[in-house]
Amino acid sequence: MNLRLLSERVINCKLCPRLVAYTSEVASRKVRRFSHWEYWGRPVPSFGDPEATIMIVGLAPAAHGGNRTGRMFTGDHSGEWLFKALHEVGLANKSTSISRDDGLQVKGVYITAVVHCAPPDNKPLPQEVENCLNYLREELHLLNRVKVIVALGRLAFDQLCKIYGVKGRFSHGSSVTLPDGRLLIASYHPSARNTNTGKMSWDQWVWVFRRAKELSG
Ligand code: SF4
After folding, report:
1. 13 C-beta closer than 6 A to ligand 1
2. Model confidence at 217, in pLDDT bands (50, 70, 90)?
């Protein structure tokens, strides 16, 4: 198994009928501002450097973000925050993430999610999370240079703790050393709910990636 084959399996996965139906339905319905787009409308594969030392784990693609563009954190508010921060700390060649062919490249970073299909209201069901976790387990195994894992949001943090069988308390910037020596860092998710309400400032957000870069060597 390698990352390319894993990516193909994700793209063709149909394990969660509710999500397969929803992503496809959103792709046909669209929203007015993206009516000219050919939506991806399928499971969204992970994205990044196969030699990554930092893994970033989000919740799931957004209905009109990753589910539209076919790339994680691409074409939505969370993606704007993520790549602006990665660029600021020198981990991405551009500060914007607009489409799969926009020339964006990351260095030493791999971006994935707990769930690869956009869920209604951004809320996957427990069984859907369970179904998709196997892909994350495989990525954790295949990306053997990863030293630091950044979990974006409580759900991603809790699922990583579950995979590793450790207890951790979620708060922005908290960290847990995992049994394989990797460090898990918790961060608020860069959704508008957190960034537009002042729950997470820009400095608090960028600090997470500066720390991840420093600790990943
Ligand atoms: S959420 Fe994951 S397991 Fe479920 S259909 Fe999508 S890719 Fe498959």
Report:
1. yes
2. confident
